[in-house]
Design goal:
The protein has 26 helices and 28 strands. The protein is α/β, with parallel strands linked by helices. The strands form eight sheets. Strands 5-4-19-18-17-6-7 form a seven-stranded mixed sheet, covered by helices on one side. A six-stranded mixed sheet has the order 24-26-25-28-23-27. A four-stranded parallel sheet has the order 11-10-9-13, sandwiched between helices. Helix 3 crosses helix 19 and helix 10 crosses helix 14.
Length: about 750
């Protein structure tokens, strides 16, 4: 493989298209890029036809990737916060030494459970999450979290209890496709999203159903748009599930063979008042019943739920009710329905285990609910979190209650951020360590959930990093060394084994050392980077941690790997991944394999706590608007020119640069608000001044603000200009959350709107 410098030269002279991937959503579509003449930035972008999943498809956002790589606020040196709140550059040796001393002091005084880890990789870089073990392991860190805990843990928890894994829809073959709280036209969520939606909409044999309070672009193409009242999805879904039972539409033969707990579910749903569900959801009872009949009669159904319901009232219950609808009708385990994928990572693990030390929040996949973290810090409880390590994440901006997060950051005894820029979170930290960008090292994600062919994509670096930043793997290894977690002479001994006998000898020597010193297991990722990394093709050292993952994956999936045409060994899989810059299919399975992933081979239908919650819906009154806060705000809507906050330069947004507040025309007229006018939106947490966009897609009483705005970015002189747009989490608060797993209710925040 050419070096990154050679890649830049080749691009300059020959205009070669280089393979990489988009990093702006979880799909990580394959991308081809040409570099600028000087090899320092991305000049042109197109879809990668060789990518196994996206197959050349590209959305408008991926064309703006250079706004991530070529940025004015690149962090090039470690920064240390001074007592006056300013930051000064310090040498790497100084920063590592001081951080290691402070973190070990907290550990020694209060235990490793008092140090909290947040992050582990953003949309496009998951490998730092593996390398972080190298430093947090020796520190004894027990508690951690990341963005999944404010989005997906309710769905993960329900799915794990019902299926033992996370089901996904086979949308390409489904006769009926349902988008629940999801607008794939803007937020994607399935490969080739816009093309796929058009294909479904044009096919007279297929039906597209969209459940969303807003008339979205996806709803425009739908055969059925169920414009549920904001935050009332639970009543709609309960009414549909009850219709299936009360009208005798359940697939009883399928259920008898493939499910358990059916009687309890049917008994509960038999008692649901469908007319009441219709009144509360805002959907006519006849429409609820006809839609349920359509689902029951379909040959195949696939459902995709997303943040519109996962960050909303009854979020965990909604994740359960929608699964009852398609399991009662037998839409699992065959083409066009739902499957459980087997990927290289375990990012969708929904197992429950333990609680947080102060607030007692339920931990799903080992993650502390994001809405509880500040309350685990801002307390005098002896088990509070006293230090934080934050990596490739921006919780001060992206989690509920930004003001509370700023207070919590200052209450910590030590806080460290690893990132490429001085984010809102970095500006509250004691130390900020500069990392290489996602295009300056080998990177990958574990968001790979395809079936029957599942793929993996290791992205090769595009650029040589500037002086100063380090790979996260190196940062964590230096911290481990400074903490005394790396025995003297160990690296030299392992390097010698590698030189003498390659990977096999290295693996044997490493296992022997771990048998002698079990504590060494914590620093294995860092050792892989240091010892195995230099032996890999030029530029791919950061992929070393995948080698261990491939060995483990092969133990349970050798047959599926062989079916994909690959050598069924850990080394064979690893080498194949290294040699495929556009990604490759790593497993091939058929539908019977899906059933082998269910504990006992059956779907567990009856979840007693959620069935009890279902029985209470008819007696429950939906939260009504108050005179003080008459609107429900959707805080963080995906739009054409919004993305995650790694695109900080506001120039990338060609439309709606200020991130307007969408409001229904009747509401706007009543408040004397016109197109482009200024308004102030207030909640119990705070206020933000916004630009107004009158939008007849919104229901009365429902307003929305986009995600990704309200971030700092320096102007050409290095000064700090006004922040563009509203920061949504200045308006949210921690107590607004799901009762089971603590996911936030960002899509239904009580708010007031006033003309300025």
């Amino acid at each position: 493989m050419a070096t990154a410098a050679q890649i830049g030269k080749t691009s300059k002279e020959n205009g070669d298209w280089l393979s990489t991937a988009c990093i702006l959503c979880a799909l990580n579509c394959g991308v081809k890029v040409q570099l600028s003449a000087d090899g320092r930035s991305i000049a042109r972008t197109r879809g990668d036809e060789s990518h196994p999943a996206s197959k050349g498809y590209l959305c408008n956002k991926a064309s703006r990737l250079n706004y991530y790589q070529d940025r004015a606020n690149r962090l090039l040196s470690p920064m240390r916060r001074s007592s006056d709140g300013s930051y000064e550059e310090v040498a790497w040796e100084t920063a590592i030494r001081e951080i290691a001393a402070k973190l070990t002091a907290v550990r020694d005084a209060h235990g490793g459970e008092s140090i909290f880890y947040y992050g582990g990789g953003g949309q496009g870089n998951h490998l730092p999450g593996a390398y972080a073990r190298t430093s947090i392991g020796p520190l004894g860190v027990k508690y951690r979290s990341n963005a999944l805990a404010q989005e997906k843990t309710g769905e993960f928890w329900v799915a794990d209890r019902m299926f033992g894994g996370w089901p996904h829809g086979d949308f390409e073959q489904a006769q009926v496709v349902v988008f629940l709280g999801k607008n794939p036209w803007q937020s994607h969520g399935l490969h080739r999203a816009r093309a796929a939606i058009r294909e479904i909409a044009k096919d007279p044999e297929r039906t597209l159903i969209v459940i969303d309070p807003k008339r979205t672009e996806s709803a425009d193409l739908a055969d059925i748009h169920l414009a549920v009242k904001p935050a009332r999805d639970a009543w709609l879904l309960a009414g549909m599930a009850a219709t299936i039972v009360q009208e005798g539409l359940a697939n009883e033969a399928w259920l008898a063979s493939h499910a358990s707990g059916v009687a309890q579910v049917e008994s509960t749903l038999a008692g649901i008042d469908i007319a009441d569900c219709a009144t509360k959801s805002g959907i006519d009872e006849a429409v609820i019943r006809s839609t349920a009949r359509l689902v029951a009669a379909a040959s195949s159904v696939a459902v995709l739920e997303d943040l519109g319901v996962q960050m909303n009232r009854h979020s965990t219950l909604v994740s359960y009710l929608q699964r009852l609808i398609w399991t009662l009708t037998g839409h699992f385990g065959r083409p066009g329905t739902h499957y459980i994928a087997k990927g290289l990572g375990r990012i969708s693990d929904g197992r429950e285990g333990g609680v947080s030390p102060v607030a007692g929040g339920r931990l799903i996949a080992g993650l502390v609910p994001c809405n509880l973290i500040t309350s685990e810090i801002l307390t005098d409880h002896p088990k509070r979190y006293r230090a934080m390590l934050i990596e490739s994440a921006n919780p001060v901006h992206s989690l509920a209650d930004s003001a509370g997060w700023r207070q919590a950051m200052r209450a910590l005894e030590c806080s460290v951020v690893i990132d490429v820029a001085m984010t809102e979170t970095a500006l509250e930290a004691d130390y900020v360590l500069p990392a290489t960008t996602q295009f300056e090292k080998a990177e990958a994600t574990f968001f790979n959930f395809e079936f029957p062919d599942n793929y993996f994509h290791l992205r090769h670096p595009l650029f040589t990093p500037p002086d100063g930043p380090l790979d996260e793997a190196e940062i964590h290894m230096r911290l481990a060394e400074a903490m005394g977690a790396v025995p003297e002479g160990l690296e030299a001994e392992l390097n010698q084994a590698m030189a003498d006998g390659g990977r096999t000898a290295f693996a044997m020597a490493l296992m022997a050392k771990m048998a002698e010193q079990p504590g060494l297991s914590a620093i294995v990722p860092g050792l892989l980077y240091r010892i195995l990394g230099p032996s890999l093709p030029d530029g791919l050292a950061n992929s070393a941690v995948l080698w261990g993952g491939c060995q483990r994956f092969m133990m349970a999936n050798a047959e599926a790997v062989a079916a994909a045409g690959l050598e069924p060994t850990g080394d064979g899989l690893f080498d194949a991944i290294l040699a495929a810059p556009s990604g490759l299919v790593i497993t091939r399975q058929d539908w019977p394999a899906v059933w082998q992933r269910l504990p006992g081979g059956k779907v567990e239908m009856a979840l007693p706590d959620l069935l009890t919650a279902t029985t209470k819906l008819n007696a429950e009154q939906p939260a009504e608007a108050s005179s003080e806060y008459p609107f429900l705000l959707s805080a963080g809507e995906r739009r054409s020119f919004t993305a995650n906050t790694i695109l900080r330069n506001p120039e990338w947004r060609r439309k709606d640069p200020q991130g307007a507040l969408f409001i229904n025309p009747e509401d706007a007229a009543r408040l004397n608000l016109g197109e482009g006018s200024s308004a102030r939106i207030s909640t119990q947490s705070g206020s933000q001044d916004v630009v107004v966009a009158v939008n007849d897609r919104m229901q009365r009483g429902h307003v929305s603000l986009p995600n990704g705005l309200g971030v700092n970015y320096p102007n050409g002189d290095g000064d700090q200009p006004p922040i563009f747009g509203a920061a949504p989490n200045e308006l949210t608060w921690s107590e607004l959350r799901d009762e089971y797993v603590g996911t936030p209710w960002h899509k239904s925040v009580p708010a007031r709107v006033e003309a300025i």
